[in-house]
Amino acid sequence: MDTQKIMQKLFIIFCSVTIFKCSIATAQDGDTALINELIKDIAASQVKTNGEFYAGMFPSFRECGGAPHNYQPDNNIFFTAITAFTLRNLLPHLQ
User: Fold this and answer.
1) Angle at the Cα of 22 (from 16 to 27), degrees rounded to 5?
2) How far is Cα 44 from Cα 10, in angstroms, rounded to an integer?
3) pTM above the 0.70 mark?
4) Which band of pLDDT confidence, cut at 50, 70 and 90, is reported for residue 29?
5) Which of 5, 30, 52, 63 could crosslink 73 through cysteines, CB 3.0-4.6 Å?
6) What is the DSSP string of 36-72?
7) How far apart are CA 41 and CA 77, in angstroms?
8) Long-range CB contact pairs, 85-92, < 8 A, 24+
């Protein structure tokens, strides 16, 4: 999965979480299913065991467009940190 697809997926997740956060006051029973699916999607995107990426990270790749072409895994903590920060701030509203 390339960086652009990962960024698009995370952008959709963060937009969904932001929309949820803005609509907490008007939450209905159907929102619980949406929240559960978003949390499952986030968990599925997270690396489970050490390999190319450290366990717990969200995969990202770095690429050098020059010769020779270089495309390799990158244990970049940015996406992982911002996801954890957002979920931690939303945790009181999800219980």
Assistant:
1) 90
2) 12
3) no
4) low
5) 52
6) HHHHHHHHHHS--SSSSS-TTPPPEEEEE-SSSPEEE
7) 19
8) 86/14, 86/17, 87/17, 87/42, 90/17, 90/20, 90/21
